[in-house]
Specification:
The complex is a heterodimer of chains A (about 230) and B (about 475). Chain A has about 230 residues and is an alpha+beta fold. Chain A has helices at about 30-35, 85-100, 115-125, 160-165, 190, 195-205, and strands spanning about 10-15, 20-25, 60, 65-70, 80, 140, 145-150, 175, 185, 210-215. Classes of the chains: A alpha+beta (about 230), B alpha+beta (about 475).
Chain lengths: ~230, ~475
C-alpha cells in the first residue's frame, strides 16, 4: 500500500492534463483516486503490497505506451492519460475477454452482487462481448472439505497464489501448466487445515466466484451485497 | 388417403409447440398430437454443480413461475442438509412467496392470455383477441388484472429479493425475513400498490364475471373439451386445498381414490414416464394403472377436484358455489380451469392476508440444518400443477443426478386429448382451416395454461402452426400465425 508519508518527496504530475500534487513513488491508482479519478481495477486491491499487474484492467497511457496503473509509481513530470474513449473501450475489451475465456454462469453464482468482474462488466457498460466464447472445458474441484474451487470462473489473477498463506506461512494455491493450460491448483491437505476465518478470507480475496466456501451459498439478501445499490 | 393438419406454433401459451391433426380418407380425425418441439436439458447440466446452486440455477428454466422451481428445489435440498422441519419464519416466508407466485401467474394467465377469448369470443376479431384488445375495450378489468398481478409480483420481490429469479430460499430455510413495516405496506397499499382489500374485492368481482360467463355460455362450456381423467395434486392433512406442502392424492374421474395421500418422497414407487418419438414432452402416469389409464390432469381444476375443502373462508364459499353450479364434485370439463384458477387466486390472497399479520415473519431464526443425506425430493403445487424436483448429491456436495417432472408434463396426455376432441368436433369434413377453428384448438390447450418452457426445460413464446398432411406425410395445406 502506498501510504502518504511526510518524508516522501512531493512532486507534480499531470493526470489527463491537470496538474496535481503527488508523492514520489505513490501508486497511480491510489493517487488518481485521491484526486477524484476512479481507475477500474480487478487484480489490485487496497493494501495488497506489491501489485500483481495481471489483469491490465487499470490500463492507462504514459509516454504513448499502455501501462498498468497499479504497477506504476509516481515520478516527477509524469503526464498520464486516463479517461479517454479508447482507453475506456480497451478496459471494457479486457473485461469481455475474461468473460469469454471462462464459463462464468453468473445467474447461478453465489458471488453475484459481490463479484468484482461482474461489477466491472456493469460499470463499463458491457452488454455482450465482442469476442467469441471459447467454451473451455473446465471442472470444479470438490475434493476439499471447506473450499470448492470453480475453475470455470477463475481469471488467473494470482491473488490466491501470491497473496494468501495458511497459518504456517505456506501457500495453499499455486499455478500449474502453461499458456492456455494454465490453471490454479489447490493443495487439498493445506486447504483442509485452514481455519474458518482463513477460509472466509480467501473467499473474500477471490475477485470472482472461483473460490467458494462449501455450504455458504446465497447467504445474504439482494440489497445487502457488496455491489447492490 | 389420410390428411394431416399441423398447427405450429400455438399462441398465447408459455413456450413453443405445434399441433398435427391426422385425417383419414373420409375427412375424419384419426389422431391429434400436441408436439413440444423445444428441448433444454436442465436435468443434465445441473449435474456436477454444487447442491446449494440448485434452487437458483434450475429456476432459470422459466421466467413465468421461477418461484415454483426455486421452492421445489429448495424443499429437495432441505432434505440434503437434513432440514426436515423448517423454522416458522423459514416456512412462512416461503409460503408467502409461493402464494404471491400463484397469484401473479394465475392473473397473468387469466387477464393476459385467456380473457381475450372469453371477452371477444373464440371466433371474435383476431386483431382484438389479445391483451391490447382487452385494455382498449375493457380498461377497468384490464387495469385490475394488471394491479392484481403486480401485487403478486411485489410479494415475490419482498420475499425472494427480486420479481424474477430471486435467491432467498436457501438450504434449510430462508435468508431474510419481512419487517412489520413491509407487511403493513402490503396490507394497506400505497400510491404504487393496491391494498390487500382492493385485491380481494377485485378478485371477487372477476369470479362474479366468470359465473355470469358460465351461465351465458353453459352449453358450450359443458360440451367443449370434456373428457374423463384422473386428477392429481398435493393435499393437506385434513383434506384441504394445499399449494405448498402436503401428501399426493389422485382421484379418478368419478372421485374414487387411486393414489391415497402418499408421502411424496415415495413418488418413484408410484410414477413412471412414457415417451413418444414425436415430442420432447414425456407422459407421466401411475404405474399400477399403466400409461393408458394412469395419466392425470393437474393444476387448478384437478386441485379443486381432489380437495375436500379450502381452509380460507371466502375461497371455500366460492368452491361450494363452483361445485353447486357444475352439479358435481369431480369436474371433467376443461374450461372450468379458468374459474378454478380464480378461486385459487382468492385463496392465495386470503393466505397472504393471514401471513402478513403473523409476527413469525419478523423472527430471525432463519435456517435449520440436520444430518446430511444423499437424496432430496421436493414437491410443490406450481400454478400449473404438481411439480417434482429430485436430486442425488455426493458426499463431496456435487449433484450427481436430477429428475424433474414439471406440471405441464402431467397435463400432456390431457392436452392431446383436448386437441383431439376439438379437432373431431370442428375440423372433420372441412377442406381448409379458418382462423376461428385454429383458435378453438388453442383455446383447448390454453385452458391448461401450459408452460412448455418448463415442461421440456425450454423457453420462448408460443405461436401456432397447423398443417394438414396426407397418409404419406405430405403437407396438403396449413395455417400459421
Amino acid at each position: 500500500m502506498n501510504k502518504l508519508s511526510k518524508n516522501t518527496k512531493k512532486i507534480n504530475i499531470l493526470l489527463d492534463g491537470k496538474e496535481v500534487e503527488a508523492q514520489e513513488g505513490e501508486n497511480i491508482v491510489e493517487l488518481a483516486k485521491r484526486h477524484g479519478i476512479d481507475i477500474p481495477v480487478l487484480c489490485y486491491y487496497e493494501g495488497m503490497g506489491e501489485c500483481l499487474g495481471t489483469c491490465r484492467v487499470c490500463t492507462i497511457r504514459w509516454k504513448r505506451h499502455h501501462v498498468s496503473a497499479c504497477t506504476l509509481k509516481a515520478e516527477e513530470g509524469m503526464d498520464l492519460t486516463i479517461e479517454t474513449e479508447d482507453l475506456k473501450d480497451l478496459r471494457k475489451a479486457l473485461i469481455e475477454l475474461l468473460f469469454v475465456e471462462g464459463n462464468h454462469f453468473c445467474p447461478s453464482c453465489e458471488k453475484s452482487g459481490d463479484c468484482d468482474l461482474q461489477h466491472l462488466g456493469l460499470k463499463l457498460e458491457m452488454t455482450v462481448p465482442r469476442f467469441h466464447y471459447r467454451f473451455n472445458n473446465r471442472s470444479i474441484n470438490f475434493d476439499a472439505d471447506k473450499i470448492l474451487f470453480e475453475h470455470n470462473r477463475c481469471i488467473l489473477c494470482k491473488r490466491c497464489t501470491h497473496k494468501f498463506e495458511d497459518d504456517n506461512g505456506e501457500r495453499v494455491f499455486a499455478f500449474k501448466g502453461k499458456g492456455s493450460n494454465l490453471s490454479v491448483e489447490m493443495n487439498i491437505e493445506r486447504a483442509n487445515g485452514l481455519s474458518e476465518e482463513l477460509v472466509d478470507q480467501v473467499v473474500e480475496l477471490c475477485p470472482v466466484g472461483a473460490i467458494l466456501k462449501k455450504g455458504k451459498g446465497f447467504d445474504r439478501p439482494i440489497g445487502k451485497r457488496k455491489y447492490d445499490e | 388417403m389420410t390428411n394431416k393438419i399441423v398447427i405450429d406454433p400455438v399462441t398465447r401459451v408459455e413456450g413453443h409447440g405445434k399441433v398435427t391433426i391426422h385425417m383419414d380418407d373420409n375427412q375424419k380425425v384419426e389422431e391429434a398430437r400436441f408436439h413440444i418441439v423445444e428441448f433444454r436439458g436442465f436435468e443434465k447440466f445441473i449435474q456436477g454443480r454444487p447442491y446449494w446452486e440448485a434452487p437458483v440455477l434450475v429456476q432459470r428454466l422459466c421466467g413465468i413461475c421461477p418461484v415454483s422451481h426455486h421452492l421445489a428445489a429448495a424443499k429437495a435440498i432441505d432434505q440434503i442438509v437434513g432440514a426436515h422441519q423448517l423454522s416458522a419464519v423459514g416456512e412462512k416466508m416461503r409460503r408467502l412467496m409461493h402464494y404471491g407466485q400463484v397469484l401473479q401467474s394465475h392473473a397473468l394467465h387469466f387477464f393476459y392470455l385467456a380473457a381475450p377469448d372469453l371477452l371477444f369470443g373464440v371466433d371474435g376479431p383476431v386483431e382484438q383477441r389479445n391483451i391490447v384488445g382487452v385494455i382498449q375495450q375493457h380498461k377497468d378489468l384490464a387495469l385490475k388484472g394488471i394491479k392484481l398481478r403486480k401485487y403478486g409480483q411485489e410479494i415475490i420481490k419482498a420475499t425472494a429479493g427480486k420479481k424474477i429469479h430471486g435467491i432467498s430460499a436457501v438450504p434449510g430455510g430462508i435468508h431474510k425475513n419481512l419487517s412489520r413495516k413491509e407487511c403493513d405496506l402490503f396490507i394497506n397499499g400505497s400510491s404504487e400498490l393496491a391494498s390487500l382489500k382492493d385485491c380481494i374485492d377485485w378478485n371477487q368481482e372477476v369470479i362474479d364475471f366468470m359465473i355470469d360467463y358460465h351461465k351465458k355460455n353453459k352449453s358450450w362450456i359443458d360440451s367443449f373439451s370434456v373428457f374423463d381423467s384422473n386428477h392429481l395434486g398435493l393435499i393437506g392433512e385434513d383434506g384441504a386445498l394445499e399449494l405448498y406442502h402436503g401428501n399426493l392424492r389422485a382421484l379418478d374421474s368419478k372421485g374414487r381414490a387411486i393414489l391415497n395421500d402418499i408421502d411424496y418422497t415415495d413418488y418413484l414407487d408410484h410414477f413412471e414416464e412414457d415417451v413418444k418419438e414425436w415430442t420432447y414432452l414425456k407422459f407421466p402416469y401411475l404405474k399400477k394403472h399403466g400409461p393408458q389409464n394412469g395419466w392425470s390432469r393437474v393444476g387448478p381444476l384437478a386441485r379443486l377436484n381432489i380437495c375436500d375443502h379450502i381452509n380460507t373462508p371466502l375461497a371455500n364459499e366460492r368452491l361450494e358455489q363452483y361445485r353447486k353450479f357444475a352439479g358435481e364434485k369431480i369436474i371433467n370439463k376443461s374450461l372450468y380451469y379458468h374459474w378454478a384458477r380464480l378461486i385459487e387466486m382468492l385463496h392465495c390472497l386470503e393466505m397472504i392476508e393471514t401471513l402478513l399479520h403473523d409476527s413469525d415473519l419478523q423472527s430471525n431464526n432463519l435456517i435449520v440444518t440436520g444430518k446430511r443425506q444423499k437424496t432430496g425430493i421436493g414437491v410443490i403445487e406450481a400454478p400449473r400443477g404438481t411439480l417434482i424436483h429430485h436430486y442425488e448429491v455426493s458426499e463431496k456436495d456435487e449433484i450427481t443426478r436430477c429428475n424433474l417432472i414439471v406440471s405441464t408434463t402431467h397435463n400432456n396426455m390431457a392436452m392431446n386429448k383436448a386437441v383431439e376432441l376439438v379437432a373431431k368436433k370442428s375440423l372433420e369434413g372441412q377442406e381448409k382451416i379458418s382462423e376461428p377453428m385454429l383458435n378453438e384448438i388453442e383455446v383447448a390447450i390454453r385452458a391448461y395454461d401450459p408452460c412448455l418452457s418448463c415442461a421440456t426445460h425450454a423457453m420462448g413464446e408460443m405461436p401456432l402452426d397447423v398443417k394438414v398432411l396426407d397418409s404419406r406425410g405430405h403437407e396438403l395445406f396449413g395455417r400459421k400465425k
